[in-house]
Specification:
Layout lengths: L2 H28 L4 H13 L3 H11 L21
């Protein structure tokens, strides 16, 4: 096996990994509410290429969570805002 063949297969594997995990990464970055649905679509898209565009569309247009991050507790361990 030639080194150029090895680099070809490794780069092809890296590109496929990025393409197939793209919807989940987009959904995580956007902070959507229903991440389980995107993970399910991504699992189906891994088996069938038909669901891959659907997973990307769902990840891009899904409803985002409007809840901000939880504030850290104060120094006595009591949550703030109460």
């Amino acid at each position: 096996m030639d080194w150029s063949d090895l680099w070809f297969w490794l780069s092809l594997l890296a590109v496929l990994a990025i393409v197939f995990t793209g919807p989940t990464l987009i959904a995580l970055i956007r902070g959507i509410d229903d991440i389980g649905f995107i993970l399910l679509l991504n699992a189906i898209a891994f088996v069938t290429l038909v669901a891959l565009p659907i997973a990307y569309i769902a990840a891009i247009f899904a409803v985002r969570s409007d809840r901000g991050p939880t504030p850290p507790p104060d120094r006595h361990g009591v949550p703030r805002g109460r």
